[in-house]
């Protein structure tokens, strides 16, 4: 780790002014510090956001959905009575995320912005495509945890548990920079690295996530999050599924199906959601939807099992919406 | 000197028999007849050092900070094989705070593991030592490492076991990559296999497991101009001392090695490593203490591992018995020069008439193996005990019944020596009862949720653990009436300190808190390394003799003070007891002024022509989700026959720890190496997944707890390794029982379980 300057502003405006070339925003630090230790992030300066009070907390306003401040700790999201009542899929997605200690430190914004966990990317001695190198080493290498679908030059998988659950809840992120503010759907916030885009997020230089907004309409859906791990705790998802649907008279509509761990971005296939519209989410419908989700899958040498797992997890997640 | 004899002792260590010369003095004490608990032995005692450990007062190697201490860092090869053509250290040396840089062009000739240099001209694995830096702090040392420029001439490499065996692999050793590592035969395997009713021919694989002790390897060396003191996290203070004195050409008295507390070893710290020599060399060169502690990544590149194996087994059954067994194995030893032979259990566990085994060591461009808790036996038992179950299925016989038919023999089939004690059938009986074996069905059982199946499985373990000489103890009584016990062994976290304090207190008639144990220091007389499950069985009997001698002397001395014949006195709970009177030792001792009562104890040799073994059986109950391949280990019952149990509490924690580590081997732990880059992709605790508390099942621990009176005067044998041996096979057998799917590769990851399930069409 090389030397860096450090600032802890008290106001958002001040923080935005400090964010420029060579600076990185620090929140919980659970990802950033490890990136710095391994030479994968080399900031000249860190702008510590934890002194900014206004970016923390969860607010529920009747008819206006839910707002989650970007600095809210993951453990606070997990324990939020408002969310447990009106949007349980979100706290549920965090139950098996990392460890309690990391959830205490980690923040919503940091979780959504975390870098991928590819072991070639994380190895400072490997110059992979995402880091400006010539190729992805996973394609012909050790790829049991890599993408089975949606990859271009780079076969990373999206590691966040929170992101699929939020996308299934139609979440938007509010972004701020010294130039202004903008709001985009969270689904559009993730990009599969390709071409000149050697990155995973659509965030711009000098920008911060300030808030995650969930519209009122999403609260009418029932949702669930299931996750397959190699061990019983403290593992990134091999495959995860966030599923949500409006359920009335035994029929599903307005379905959301978002998978984690299988593609460079949280993987949502609207055509699969449409397959489920009006069905009772029976096994046949669920498996048909899974087939649509996975039809373009091109597994690598060691990760074909993810397709099997994804199919079953999609079925289970959707089925559970009817119980 | 009366009663002094020079003898040969034959003792088992990690599956091999070694002969050594021992000097014996006086007579050994008899072992307890019935093994009933005494004042201390057989009592569950919390660790005597528990308070120091949990309050942070315990001094681990990593905690050692000396005035003026420098920090060393090691530059390791980023490539799996290359010739080091040139090293440019100018930039590194120009960095403020850098005190020295060592590398192959400026380091002295050092004998280390059969090579004449610390820094090879041809580096042979990613992580091989290229250079070392000493600097004022560890940050500067790390920065300096990055500034060293090395010119590598890249050479062809191979890291994968099966590729290295193949015809296309580059020859890493001049004579090829595959080397003989042991052969054994009894009877006529070929004929018996041909004449059998039922045969199986199966291949098993186990992946490389890494120790990942909580405390990484490391040393702090301090040279005072005449003597080198080294604090090292080691399982063998004398092993380190001997290596250092040879490497640095010093006298034994010039090297002192200390390891008072350590955060785990599991075999990887039984050997010796270059970092200790590097710290010592730098300290001797610079005249300041030097600390060299490995990072987690270095730990997983260059500090040992359990070899990956490929194992082919053929078994044959006839008339309800196993009549033939052939076991051929290949172990990826990396750059190690020995193999942890997996065929040991096949050669010795069962009374099978026709056995043939061959073991091979395979050289690759990966870090050397090291001992890892029952090296070879964990890998071999996974294969053997899986295969025995597969044969039982083919023979349509209950797998436990089949094993019982081959577990009755009272002689070691390899040497024809009688076992000193064998209670394996009792282990089976207790375990079967605890797990509810009678409810096992050949086709498994329904699970607790849809798509889940439940199954039971079991497996057997055999191991040494008899210990042996040489090992010495001294005990003296302080002026306050308490005892100080001094030994040259170390406590690697297993509870040695507590167990030998109990032995000492018990023999002396003191309370446990009246015994102070000094260990982990080569300034004491020799004690063996803590490996091969030998520590307690080696040092315990010596402690007992030393304490017994002190007791006899103390009674005479107390008789003199109290004006009573010694024969009418005894010592109980720290007091001299005579008819109707108790005098605390703390009142007796001051009357002796500074006279000190000292006793010494030696470990007597093991009896000739007897096989001292430990036996045990683990039973596992699992559920398997047949759609997702997830294994839920619900319960493991462990029953061990390891002689007398000195401390049931620490013994149980050994078994629990062994099972947890075995579950890692069975389910998740696997080193992943990129074949092209030769790099370990998961040299961390993120993708190298050791079990978490959530992965730990209900564990039931039982001991047969009968003293092995022929083994030694305590009747105790080792327990460090036995509990890691049979768990993986027991789980694999339970998975097969539950689902019909046989997973022949440990760890049994999702991918492998799903593949096996797909083969049998389970869902």
What does this structure look like?
The complex is a heterodimer of chains A (323) and B (763). Chain A is of the alpha+beta class and 323 residues long. Chain A is built from eleven helices and twelve strands. Chain A has helices at 12-18, 32-37, 74-79, 81-86, 89-94, 100-105, 108-113, 162-167, 270-276, 283-294, 305-320, and strands spanning 5-7, 23-26, 45-48, 58-60, 66-69, 172-177, 180-185, 208-214, 222-228, 239-248, 251-260, 267-268. In chain A, the strands form three sheets. A five-stranded antiparallel sheet of chain A has the order 4-5-8-6-7, with no helix packed on it. Chain A has a four-stranded antiparallel sheet with strand order 9-10-11-12. In chain A, helix 9 runs antiparallel to helix 10 (283-294) and helix 10 crosses helix 11 (305-320). The longest helix of chain A is centred in the last third of the chain and has 16 residues, at 305-320. The mean pLDDT of chain A is 97. Chain B is of the alpha+beta class and 763 residues long. Chain B folds into three domains: 4-60 and 467-602, Aldehyde oxidase/xanthine dehydrogenase, molybdopterin binding domain (Aldehyde Oxidoreductase, domain 4, 2-Layer Sandwich), CATH 3.30.365; 64-156 and 217-293, Aldehyde oxidase/xanthine dehydrogenase, a/b hammerhead (Aldehyde Oxidoreductase, domain 3), CATH 3.90.1170; 309-466 and 609-760, Aldehyde Oxidoreductase, domain 4 (2-Layer Sandwich), CATH 3.30.365. In chain B, a hairpin with a 2-residue loop joins strand 25 and strand 26 (581-584). Chain B is built from 18 helices and 32 strands. The model of chain B has no long low-confidence stretch (mean pLDDT 96). Helices cover 26% and strands 27% of the residues of chain B. The chains are: A alpha+beta (323), B alpha+beta (763). Chains A and B meet through helix 11 of A and helix 18 of B.
């Amino acid at each position: 780790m090389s030397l860096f300057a450090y600032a802890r502003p008290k106001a958002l405006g001040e923080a935005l002014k400090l964010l420029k070339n060579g600076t990185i925003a620090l929140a919980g630090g659970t990802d950033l510090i490890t990136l710095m230790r391994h030479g994968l992030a080399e900031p000249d300066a860190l702008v510590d956001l934890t002194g900014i009070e206004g970016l923390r907390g969860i607010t529920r306003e009747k008819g206006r959905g839910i707002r989650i401040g970007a600095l809210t700790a993951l453990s606070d999201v997990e324990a939020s009575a408002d969310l447990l009542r009106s949007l349980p899929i979100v706290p549920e997605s965090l139950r098996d995320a990392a460890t309690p200690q990391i959830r205490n430190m980690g923040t919503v914004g940091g979780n959504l912005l975390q870098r991928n966990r590819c072991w070639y990317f994380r190895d400072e001695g490997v110059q992979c495509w995402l880091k400006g190198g010539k190729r992805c080493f996973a394609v012909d290498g050790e790829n049991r945890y890599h993408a089975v679908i949606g990859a271009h030059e780079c076969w990373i998988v999206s590691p966040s548990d929170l992101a699929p659950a939020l996308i299934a809840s139609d979440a938007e992120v509010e972004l701020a920079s010294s130039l202004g503010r903008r709001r985009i759907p969270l689904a559009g916030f993730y990009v599969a690295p390709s071409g000149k885009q050697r990155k995973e997020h659509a965030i711009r230089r000098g920008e911060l996530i300030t808030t995650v907004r969930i519209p009122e309409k999403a609260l009418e859906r029932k949702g669930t999050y299931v996750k397959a791990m190699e061990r019983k705790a403290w593992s990134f998802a091999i495959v995860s599924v966030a599923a949500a649907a409006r359920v009335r008279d035994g029929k599903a509509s307005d379905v959301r199906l978002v998978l984690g761990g299988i593609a460079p971005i949280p993987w949502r296939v609207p055509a699969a959601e449409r397959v489920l519209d009006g069905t009772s989410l029976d096994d046949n419908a669920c498996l048909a939807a899974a087939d649509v989700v996975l039809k373009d899958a091109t597994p690598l040498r060691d990760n074909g099992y993810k397709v099997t797992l994804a199919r079953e997890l999609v079925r289970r997640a959707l089925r559970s919406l009817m119980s | 000197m009366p009663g002094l004899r020079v003898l040969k002792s034959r003792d088992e260590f990690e599956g091999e028999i070694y002969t050594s010369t021992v000097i014996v003095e006086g007579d050994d004490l008899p072992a307890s007849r019935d093994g009933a608990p005494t004042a201390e032995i057989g009592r569950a005692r919390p660790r005597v050092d528990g308070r120091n450990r949990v309050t942070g007062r315990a001094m681990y190697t990593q905690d050692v900070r000396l005035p003026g201490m420098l920090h060393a860092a090691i530059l390791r090869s980023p490539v799996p094989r290359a010739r080091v053509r040139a090293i440019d250290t100018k930039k590194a040396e120009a960095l403020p705070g850098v005190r020295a840089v060592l590398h192959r062009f400026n380091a002295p000739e050092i004998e280390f593991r059969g090579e004449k240099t610390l820094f090879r001209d041809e580096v042979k694995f990613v992580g091989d030592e290229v250079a070392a830096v000493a600097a004022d702090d560890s940050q500067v040392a790390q920065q300096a490492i990055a500034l060293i420029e090395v010119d590598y001439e890249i050479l062809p490499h191979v890291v994968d076991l099966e590729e290295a065996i193949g015809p296309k692999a580059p020859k890493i050793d001049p004579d090829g990559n595959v080397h003989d590592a042991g052969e054994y035969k009894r009877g006529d395997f070929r004929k018996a296999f041909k004449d059998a009713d039922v045969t199986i021919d199966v291949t098993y694989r186990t992946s490389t497991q890494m120790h990942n002790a909580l405390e990484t390897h490391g040393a702090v060396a301090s040279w005072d101009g005449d003597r080198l003191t080294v604090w090292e996290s080691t399982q063998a203070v004398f092993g380190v001392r001997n290596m250092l004195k040879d490497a640095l050409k010093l006298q034994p008295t010039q090297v002192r090695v200390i390891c008072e507390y350590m955060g785990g070893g599991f075999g990887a710290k039984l050997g010796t490593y270059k970092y200790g020599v590097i710290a010592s060399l730098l300290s001797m060169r610079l005249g300041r203490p030097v600390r060299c502690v490995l990072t987690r990544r270095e730990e997983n590149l260059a500090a040992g591992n359990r070899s990956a194996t490929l194992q082919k087994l053929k078994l044959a059954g006839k008339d309800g018995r196993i009549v033939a067994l052939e076991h051929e194995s290949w172990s990826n030893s990396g750059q190690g020069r020995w193999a942890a032979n997996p065929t040991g259990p096949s050669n010795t566990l069962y009374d099978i008439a026709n056995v043939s085994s061959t073991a091979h060591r395979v050289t690759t461009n990966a870090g050397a193996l090291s001992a890892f808790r029952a090296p070879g036996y964990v890998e071999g038992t996974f294969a053997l005990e899986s295969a025995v179950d597969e044969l039982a299925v083919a023979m349509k016989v209950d797998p436990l019944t089949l094993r019982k038919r081959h577990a009755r023999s009272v002689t070691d089939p390899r040497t024809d020596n009688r076992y000193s004690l064998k209670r394996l059938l009792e282990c089976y009986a207790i375990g079967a009862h605890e797990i509810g074996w009678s409810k096992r069905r050949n086709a498994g059982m329904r699970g607790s949720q849809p798509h889940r199946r439940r199954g039971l499985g079991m497996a057997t373990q055999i191991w040494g653990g008899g210990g042996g000489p040489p090992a010495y103890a001294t005990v003296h009584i302080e002026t306050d009436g308490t005892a100080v016990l001094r030994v040259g062994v170390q406590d690697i976290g297993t509870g040695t300190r507590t167990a030998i304090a109990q032995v000492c207190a018990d023999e002396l008639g003191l309370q446990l808190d009246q015994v102070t144990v000094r260990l982990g220091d080569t300034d004491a007389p020799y004690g063996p390394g803590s490996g091969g499950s030998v520590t307690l069985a080696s040092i315990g009997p010596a402690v007992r003799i030393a304490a017994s001698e002190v007791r006899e002397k103390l009674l005479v001395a107390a008789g003199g003070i109290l004006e009573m014949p010694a024969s009418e006195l005894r010592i109980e709970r720290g007091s001299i007891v005579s008819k109707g009177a108790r005098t605390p030792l703390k009142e007796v001792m001051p009357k002796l002024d500074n006279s000190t009562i000292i006793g010494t104890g030696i470990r007597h040799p093991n009896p000739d022509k007897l096989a001292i073994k430990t036996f045990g059986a683990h039973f596992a109950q699992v559920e398997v989700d047949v759609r997702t391949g997830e294994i839920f280990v619900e319960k493991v019952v462990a029953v061990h026959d390891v002689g007398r149990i000195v401390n049931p509490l620490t013994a149980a924690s050994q078994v629990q720890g062994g099972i947890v580590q075995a579950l890692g081997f069975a389910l998740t732990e696997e080193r992943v190496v990129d074949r092209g880059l030769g790099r370990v992709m998961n040299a961390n605790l993120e993708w190298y997944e050791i079990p978490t508390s959530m992965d730990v099942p209900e564990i039931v621990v039982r001991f047969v707890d009968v003293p092995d009176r022929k083994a030694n005067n305590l009747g105790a044998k080792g327990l460090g390794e036995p509990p890691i041996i049979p768990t993986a096979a027991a789980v694999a057998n339970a998975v097969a029982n539950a689902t019909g799917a046989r997973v022949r590769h440990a760890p049994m990851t999702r991918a492998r379980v799903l593949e096996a399930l797909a083969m049998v069409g389970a869902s």
